[in-house]
């Protein structure tokens, strides 16, 4: 039960039957602050400050609690909920709970709370005031240095913001330009790829025809003359009961492949076509060159992208499909599966394109490369724009106070771990003993109190604790001359707390409040 | 290998620590009766007629109060037993049965006894050839039946207890291992005699079977209590459809409720209470025990007191089974609850008066991380104006779980920290567990190792197991030299960084061994004297804390009262340690079970007891936390404690409203400290625990015999914890005929023997003061209890229907033994009668001087507004002011003013 309510529940109902005018001495108005002195005028009666009761004035500070709000005993410990005012001359007057009065512990610097006990309290108000002034001055000086740095950060932040804006505009402009360029390159690519495809198809067609003829020539293999290899045929070729793929490959397939190495001849028709294509592309290129002179140059820091899919091995695959066609025998299926993968077919078995096709391919490759290069540029610029926009979205304080944190990580070394926070990104606990790193949170939000949101930031949803919650980190900022982690602890399992010093948390009001040696406040 | 071992330990530690909190105890880690060979054998033993007989020719009176005879087993002519009957002071009887010439000496517990029990004369009459009767004490009588052996007990001519009336007495004598024994294996009914395997652990049983079973029956009783520690009902349940209640000190992880599984401590003491009498049976045995309980109705007749035919008498039959030792039974004949408390504590000792600060509020957590954290928490109590007396440090404060050391990175200056804590007259408690880290560089280990101080395996090697520090060894406290050496570790010069402001906590002392069978010692370990752990297991924790206690006494050269908390305990532990109910959970059901668990401990001698506020495992809902603070404010040991994986739980972390409610609960506790302290003093003197079942004060009120939703503090306060999440009414039964109960929130009176629906809100839990009682309180607030020592007292006088009331107040310096050695105490009696309230000394030799005075007297139930109140103290007279509230019949006397130490009379006219 609440002490005060206990007493009041008695006293609310109290009407004193007699009022003694006995030997109650008038007490000094101990514990009453000057602001309330008028309420304690030494009249016949005293009204409890909450108005709940009126009592004879003799009851004030008579070491018995009468008022529900404890206001009749500001100078004694009689009321559990009273307030005692320490005058603290030379320092700041302070109101303390009245249960600290007479408890043998000096709570007021003037010792006034222990007037009735044998405890001797030294008056420490003067020292306290000096110390307090020194501390305030040190604090002010710290904030002053910090604020200067903070202003620098803010200025840089403003510059960075406008630079970012300019850069963004530039990039958007560039994007528009290279997107146009990309369209043109795509057209050129298509222009070059059409005749290339045509030539390749033609080459393919010739090749297929040639192969059909060749296959027909191998009647010695196709013993039943049904244009298919059967198990029986393979067995007879190999002269064995078991069908061994390697053997088949070596003894038979290679033999067949060799007969295909003869190349088809380029036709005159095709040569004329090549000339035509070259002309068209040159023309388009000229037009394009004129256009590109107006675009600004982009940084050409691209990696060489290699295309490994130029060789077309479909010819061989075709052949193999023919071989395994219709056969469901387990052993043959094995052979067919292996052949299907085509990995045993050497590139040198592939026939070469004729010169004209080669030339067309070369032109098309060039067009493709150019297209790809521009496409990469577009991608890169888009990424840069996205990054810049993301940066712009990060809340670095109303005036960019915390902008200096952007893209920076800070470490704190403790006995077992290094704690690393990468601002606006994530926080990690890195084991010194060689264990794996644990993410203790990802950037979440500013979580300071409503009047000072930027006092704290939170990293949430880190790795989940075994049998516990997801880890999280709360950083509390305080003014300091450098960006520095001061302390990391884990007050509750998996909830980390970091203390961080930074000029960004310094306060201009504190920095400019000059501490006078004899300030009025004291 | 070493690494693998370490890894194994690590895994084991994780396992024990971190089973998901929704899962409760893994029951398969602990034996059922069926898995415990001797329990299985004894439970199966059901002869039609007992084969045990007294040899009449051997009966002799050894000395006054001591009768001896031989007991024979007519199925085994070669085995003889000696039976000793001792009649003891305070209406008590002791019966010992042991093998006459055992091939191996059997263990007899001594540590439970506070001294050698004092014999009183017995008057023997040989009624006929088959019965011997002995009278003793205050109208107590035993009747020894010869053939078969049976012992009946009477108090005030009422037949109350009977031994072996169900023919279950069965003493497994020591025997030589023969070939036939060896081949007697698994499927045989006599299995498990020479070897037993549980999970991966083999118990070698080198000495074979040695168990004892006996039935002890409580005649004309319907309720039995005690045999802690179990998380179960206060009035013990019948066990016929499950396992017996088990007594075997083990570290159970997240224990289940409402079951008979063993927990951290064991007290083989059972009480029976009925309208007519209260009696008790204590079998002093420290081996593993199982106890079956059954509620029956029976037709009875005995030679001396035939009971009319056709009347069925209720009876609680109990079947006790211990794995080893001897039968050493104490029978307490009552007949009142207060007699029983006196009788049991005469044998095992009464809990001593704790320091005043120890019964105030304690703040604990696994773990307060470092000095800054501790200071921060202390500041929190200052800032939020919540009284606090003690702050605790769990295992993480040590250097790698090496007890008696500090992690100096976290606690670089422990002395300074303790001195700062002492500034507000607060205390620090640190933990010290019995496992000693195996590390040659650790001074405790290396010295103990060199001296051969560790418990041994059956092969004589130092036993090694794992616990918090990893690989560990355990001190053999059974050796008095080792106990003494251990106690010396607590001296200020040996425990570096400790000050006289530091007190102790012995945990994990069942002992807990992470990789041991049932998470404890293997039974075939060997202690000093060659005793197997099987014979002495349940004593281990007590021996540790007794030794710790001695160390703390010696630390101040016998000047300062120690405080010490233990998890494991045995009968007698109450003499040196406070006990808490171990690792409970943040669940409403666990709040509810605190009442039956604490009452079971209370009635078996443990007065200084509590449960972790809020629940140790997992995070309590703020409402549950508040309700727990409110309930525990009225329980003897008041400590908030939480597991390392829980979120922080300091009182101010749950919003202003909950902070206020918690502060209110703690403040309420502090207002009652003068009353609590008086009750603890009474316990030291009379053995009456401060927390009581309702029947202890209202022994004839049958409605209270099963009560476990409420309890009393002393004879004056009735408390109903609120242990349900969403209720706004609670059914309150007011015990006693013609009693009046005053609600201390509203001053409303309630009539006894009635059940009333009481409205509840979050502000408080229902609590009532009995009419006829005077309770001293301190309504002023202070930051800690020791600071309030000289503060004035308010007397709350609640009048009974005769407009009378009485009460007591005990005071001393709150922390030294000067109250015993120098009579530095005040013990007052207050009597309100015939419109007069008198204060007189109950101890005329007392010399304590205090400034404390009587600042207020509140009389509830006073019929009319008096004209005048006069107070006379010696030759001084005064007329203090008073006020009267007619609606509630409340008289308040303002500043009556006498010193607490003076005689005075207040006259109302």
TrEMBL record, chain A:
One of its GO terms (biological process) is N-glycan processing. It comes from the Eukaryota. GO terms for cellular component: glucosidase II complex. Residues 300-322 have a biased composition (Basic and acidic residues). Keywords: Coiled coil, Disulfide bond, Endoplasmic reticulum, Signal. It holds the Pfam family PRKCSH-like. Residues 288-322 are annotated as: Disordered. SUPFAM superfamilies: LDL receptor-like module, Mannose 6-phosphate receptor domain. Residues 407-508 form the MRH domain. PROSITE patterns: LDLRA_2, MRH. InterPro entries: Gtb1-like, LDL_receptor-like_sf, LDrepeatLR_classA_rpt, Man6P_isomerase_rcpt-bd_dom_sf, MRH_dom, PRKCSH, PRKCSH_N. Residues 1-17 form the signal peptide. This is Glucosidase 2 subunit beta.
From TrEMBL, chain B:
PROSITE patterns: GLYCOSYL_HYDROL_F31_1. Pfam families: Gal_mutarotas_2, Glyco_hydro_31_2nd, Glyco_hydro_31_3rd. Residues 352-679 form the Glycoside hydrolase family 31 TIM barrel domain. GO terms for biological process: carbohydrate metabolic process; N-glycan processing. It is found in: Endoplasmic reticulum. PANTHER family: ALPHA-GLUCOSIDASE, BCDNA.GH04962. This is Glucosidase II subunit alpha. It comes from Rotaria magnacalcarata.
């Amino acid at each position: 039960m609440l002490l005060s309510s206990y007493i009041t529940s008695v006293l609310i109902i109290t009407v004193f039957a007699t009022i003694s005018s006995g030997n109650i001495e008038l007490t000094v108005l101990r514990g009453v602050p000057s602001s309330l002195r008028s309420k304690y005028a030494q009249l016949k009666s005293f009204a409890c400050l909450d108005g709940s009761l009126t009592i004879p004035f003799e009851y004030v500070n008579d070491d018995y609690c009468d008022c529900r709000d404890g206001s009749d005993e500001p100078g004694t410990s009689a009321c559990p909920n009273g307030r005692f005012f320490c005058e603290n001359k030379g320092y700041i007057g302070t109101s303390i709970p009245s249960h600290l009065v007479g408890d043998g512990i000096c709570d007021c610097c003037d010792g006034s709370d222990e007037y009735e006990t044998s405890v001797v309290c030294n008056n420490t108000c003067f020292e306290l005031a000096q110390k307090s002034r020194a501390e305030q001055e040190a604090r002010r000086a710290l904030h002053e240095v910090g604020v200067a740095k903070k202003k620098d950060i803010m200025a840089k932040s403003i510059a960075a913001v406008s630079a970012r804006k300019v850069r963004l505009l530039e990039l958007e402009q560039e994007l528009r330009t290279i997107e146009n360029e990309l369209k043109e390159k795509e057209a050129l690519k298509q222009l070059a790829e059409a005749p290339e495809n045509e030539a390749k198809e033609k080459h393919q067609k010739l090749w297929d025809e040639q192969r059909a003829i060749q296959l027909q020539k191998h009647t010695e293999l196709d013993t039943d003359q049904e244009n298919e290899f059967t198990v029986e045929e393979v067995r007879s070729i190999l002269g064995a009961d078991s069908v061994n793929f390697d053997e088949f490959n070596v003894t038979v397939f290679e033999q067949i492949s060799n007969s295909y190495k003869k190349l088809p001849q380029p036709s005159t028709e095709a040569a004329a076509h090549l000339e035509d294509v070259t002309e068209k592309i040159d023309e388009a290129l000229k037009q394009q060159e004129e256009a590109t002179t107006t675009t600004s140059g982009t940084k050409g820091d691209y990696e060489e992208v290699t295309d490994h899919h130029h060789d077309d091995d479909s010819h061989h695959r075709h052949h193999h499909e023919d071989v395994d066609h219709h056969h469901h025998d387990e052993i043959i299926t094995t052979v067919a599966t292996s052949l299907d993968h085509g990995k045993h077919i050497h590139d040198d078995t592939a026939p070469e394109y004729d010169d004209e096709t080669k030339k067309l391919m070369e032109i098309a490759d060039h067009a493709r490369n150019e297209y790809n290069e521009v496409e990469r540029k577009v991608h890169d610029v888009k990424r840069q724009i996205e990054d810049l926009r993301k940066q712009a979205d990060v809340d670095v304080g109303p005036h960019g106070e915390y902008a200096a944190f952007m893209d920076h990580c800070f470490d704190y070394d403790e006995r077992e771990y290094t704690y690393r926070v990468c601002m606006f990104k994530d926080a990690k606990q890195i084991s010194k003993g060689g264990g794996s790193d644990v993410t203790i949170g990802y950037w979440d939000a500013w979580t300071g109190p409503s009047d000072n949101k930027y006092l704290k930031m939170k990293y949430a949803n880190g790795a989940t604790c075994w049998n516990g919650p997801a880890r999280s980190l709360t950083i509390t900022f305080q003014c300091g001359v450098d960006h520095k982690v001061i302390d990391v602890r884990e007050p509750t399992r998996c909830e980390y707390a970091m203390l961080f010093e930074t000029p960004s948390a310094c306060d201009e009001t504190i920095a400019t409040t000059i501490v006078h040696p004899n300030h009025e406040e004291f | 290998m070493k690494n693998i071992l370490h890894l194994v330990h690590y895994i084991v530690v994780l396992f024990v620590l971190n089973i998901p909190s929704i899962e409760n105890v893994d029951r398969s880690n602990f034996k059922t009766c069926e898995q415990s060979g001797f329990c299985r054998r004894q439970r199966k033993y059901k002869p039609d007629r007992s084969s045990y007989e007294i040899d009449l020719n051997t009966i002799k009176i050894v000395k006054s109060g001591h009768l001896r005879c031989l007991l024979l087993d007519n199925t085994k002519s070669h085995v003889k037993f000696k039976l000793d009957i001792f009649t003891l002071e305070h209406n008590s009887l002791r019966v010992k049965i042991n093998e006459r010439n055992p091939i191996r000496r059997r263990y007899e517990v001594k540590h439970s006894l506070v001294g050698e029990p004092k014999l009183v004369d017995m008057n023997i009459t040989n009624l006929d050839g088959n019965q011997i009767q002995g009278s003793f004490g205050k109208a107590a009588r035993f009747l020894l039946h010869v053939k078969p052996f049976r012992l009946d007990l009477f108090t005030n001519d009422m037949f109350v207890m009977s031994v072996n009336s169900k023919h279950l007495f069965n003493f497994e004598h020591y025997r030589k291992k023969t070939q036939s024994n060896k081949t007697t294996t698994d499927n045989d009914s006599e299995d498990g005699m020479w070897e037993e395997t549980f999970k991966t652990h083999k118990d070698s049983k080198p000495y074979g079977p040695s168990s004892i079973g006996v039935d002890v029956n409580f005649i004309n009783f319907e309720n039995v209590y005690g045999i802690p520690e179990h998380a179960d009902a206060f009035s013990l349940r019948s066990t016929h459809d499950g396992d017996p209640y088990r007594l075997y000190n083990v570290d159970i992880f997240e224990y289940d409720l409402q079951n008979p599984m063993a927990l951290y401590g064991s007290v083989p003491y059972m009480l029976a209470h009925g309208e007519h009498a209260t009696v008790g049976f204590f079998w002093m045995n420290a081996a593993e025990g199982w106890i079956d309980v059954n509620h029956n109705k029976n037709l009875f007749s005995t030679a001396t007191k035939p009971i009319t035919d056709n009347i069925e008498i209720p009876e609680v039959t109990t079947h006790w089974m211990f794995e080893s030792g001897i039968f050493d039974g104490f029978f307490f004949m009552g007949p009142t609850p207060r007699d029983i408390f006196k009788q049991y504590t005469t044998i095992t000792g009464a809990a001593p008066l704790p320091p005043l600060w120890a019964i105030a509020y304690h703040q604990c957590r696994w773990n307060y991380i470092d000095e800054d954290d501790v200071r921060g928490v202390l500041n929190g109590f200052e800032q939020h104006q919540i009284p606090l007396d003690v702050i605790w440090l769990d295992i993480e404060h040590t250097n790698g779980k090496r007890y008696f050391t500090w992690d100096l990175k976290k606690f670089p200056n422990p002395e300074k920290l303790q001195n700062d804590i002492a500034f507000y007259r607060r205390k620090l408690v640190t933990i010290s567990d019995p496992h000693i880290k195996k590390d040659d560089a650790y001074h405790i280990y290396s010295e103990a190792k060199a001296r051969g101080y560790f418990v041994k395996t059956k092969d004589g090697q130092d036993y090694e197991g794992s616990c918090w520090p990893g690989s560990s060894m355990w001190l053999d406290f059974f050796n008095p030299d080792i106990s003494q050496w251990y106690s010396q570790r607590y001296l200020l010069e040996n425990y570096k960084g400790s000050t006289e402001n530091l007190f102790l906590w012995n945990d994990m002392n069942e002992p807990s061994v992470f990789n041991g069978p049932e998470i404890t010692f293997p039974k075939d370990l060997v202690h000093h004297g060659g005793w197997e752990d099987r014979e002495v297991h349940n004593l281990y924790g007590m021996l540790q804390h007794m030794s710790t206690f001695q160390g703390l006494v010696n630390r101040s050269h016998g000047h300062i009262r120690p405080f010490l908390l233990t998890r494991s305990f045995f009968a007698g532990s109450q003499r040196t340690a406070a006990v808490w109910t171990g690792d409970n959970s943040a669940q409403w059901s666990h709040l509810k079970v605190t009442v039956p668990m604490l009452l079971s401990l209370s009635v078996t001698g443990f007065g200084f007891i509590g449960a972790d506020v809020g629940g140790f495992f997992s995070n309590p809902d703020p409402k549950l936390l508040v309700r727990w603070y409110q309930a525990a404010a009225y329980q003897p040991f008041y400590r908030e404690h939480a597991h390392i994986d829980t979120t922080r739980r300091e009182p101010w972390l749950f919003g202003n409203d909950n902070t206020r409610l918690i502060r209110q609960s703690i403040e309420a506790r502090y207002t009652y400290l003068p009353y609590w302290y008086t009750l603890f003093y009474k316990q030291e003197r009379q053995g009456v625990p401060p927390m009581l079942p309702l029947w202890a004060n209202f022994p004839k009120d049958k409605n209270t015999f099963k009560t476990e939703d409420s309890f009393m503090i002393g004879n004056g306060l009735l408390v109903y914890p609120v242990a349900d999440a969403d209720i706004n009414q609670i059914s309150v039964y007011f015990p006693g005929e013609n009693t009046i109960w005053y609600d201390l929130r509203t001053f409303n009176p309630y009539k006894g023997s009635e059940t009333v629906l009481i409205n509840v809100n979050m502000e408080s839990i229902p609590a009532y003061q009995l009419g006829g009682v005077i309770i001293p309180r301190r309504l002023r607030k202070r930051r800690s209890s020791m600071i309030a020592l000289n503060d004035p007292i308010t007397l709350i006088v609640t009048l009974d229907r005769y407009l009378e009331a009485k009460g007591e107040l005990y005071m001393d310096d709150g922390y030294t033994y000067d109250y015993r050695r120098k009579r530095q105490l005040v013990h007052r009696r207050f009597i309100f009668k015939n419109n007069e309230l008198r204060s007189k000394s109950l101890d005329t030799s007392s010399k304590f001087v205090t400034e404390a005075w009587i600042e207020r007297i509140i009389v509830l139930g006073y019929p009319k507004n008096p004209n005048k109140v006069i107070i006379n103290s010696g030759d001084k007279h005064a007329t203090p002011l008073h006020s009267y509230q007619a609606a509630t019949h409340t008289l308040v006397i303002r500043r009556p003013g006498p010193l607490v130490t003076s005689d005075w009379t207040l006259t109302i006219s």
